[in-house]
């Protein structure tokens, strides 16, 4: 099969067979198809899309490019959650121990931050000693003992995705539903899970900026999961302003610690409890989202979620004393406050701009090789809808990059729109998606 013919067929809107998709992906992995041909192929898919059958074939090929973990010998329905990525999205770190404390095992393989979005792995690694690179034997040991484990993608899991994602990132082919779906689902299906809850973000800070695209992505993701025998549901959630107050790495861990110890950060906890409730329901411990939410709240209120988090930190080599006493952590060399220049209401906070400001201060990276500074970050002090007076602190920044702090602060200030009237309320959790379609959020 000639790769040029396959590229031309897709370029002209044709439907590819399993053999043709396999030839492109395997050829790229074994070196017989060069990067420039795969790049052209990805761009053809970007413009011409793939139908559902092609998308499931691509997912299947990517899934079986590596090992598929089998956790069937461990008791319980194993459930994971995946977010399409956002700014200040630290939900997994509260949710995984909380759901495990409800008796549902959570084996979680997470990613690093890229572009303006943060990554769970970078946040976890800001805990001194915390290891996210467990081998498979260690992964099984931690999930068996604690009922929760959080690691990064290993070389054995969906290696095709690792190679393809890096190429998509530099060829402008990330924002494509069949490519995103096969990328996410090949990794998730390899983890050994029985069920999956998806958090599909929409808004300025998300890969899918419009709600219509987020809905289409969620329908494809849910259909692919269901097709592979993994019960999959999704929630479309807002990512037009950062989630919670902290944007960075260690400061996000601190916010998670506070929530696990009972603090209420309203938007962050609303998303965490809703997704957690979905997981507890799929894990067979609750009959409805409402019941699942009550169990999750109780896991936090009783201290069991916090204990579970400490157990996971200990088993993965993390410094328990540091998370028990977060004030002992080193601080950034400089900090700066961003203040409101007028009276009014916070009308909007551009999550994309906040994410890019985070990169300027060292909390994120633009290329996979860049090192991040775990201490650096932003605290959002006023959220959309809050009333402000001239001179009120909107946000604070901390960094070791003394030369960048002033320009970062002025960029952050522009991310806030102050309006005379309060903004219209938009729901944080927009809709619920299952294999039968898109529905209002169950309460
Ligand atoms: N996250 C992934 O894992 N893959 C994508 O393609 C986009 C977001």
Describe the structure in your own words:
By secondary structure, this protein is α+β, with helices and mostly antiparallel strands. Helix content is 45%, strand content 16%. It contains 17 helices and 14 strands. It has helices at residues 3-11, 18-30, 35-48, 52-63, 91-101, 120-125, 136-146, 159-171, 177-189, 211-227, 250-260, 266-282, 289-301, 304-315, 320-324, 351-360, 405-415; strands spanning 79-83, 106-110, 148-152, 195-202, 231-238, 246-248, 334-339, 344-349, 377-380, 387-388, 393-399, 416-419, 429-434, 437-439. The strands form four sheets. A five-stranded mixed sheet has the order 1-4-5-13-14, sandwiched between helices. Strands 6-9-11-7 form a four-stranded antiparallel sheet, sandwiched between helices. Helix 10 (211-227) links the parallel strand 4 and strand 5 (231-238). Helix 2 (18-30) runs parallel beside helix 4. It is globular. The N and C termini lie far apart (52 Å). The mean pLDDT is 95. The structure holds uracil. The site of uracil has 10 residues, from helix 9.
Topology:
Blueprint: H1 3-11, H2 18-30, H3 35-48, H4 52-63, E1 79-83, H5 91-101, E2 106-110, H6 120-125, H7 136-146, E3 148-152, H8 159-171, H9 177-189, E4 195-202, H10 211-227, E5 231-238, E6 246-248, H11 250-260, H12 266-282, H13 289-301, H14 304-315, H15 320-324, E7 334-339, E8 344-349, H16 351-360, E9 377-380, E10 387-388, E11 393-399, H17 405-415, E12 416-419, E13 429-434, E14 437-439
Parallel strand pairs: 1-4, 2-3, 4-5
Antiparallel strand pairs: 5-13, 6-9, 7-11, 8-10, 8-12, 9-11, 13-14
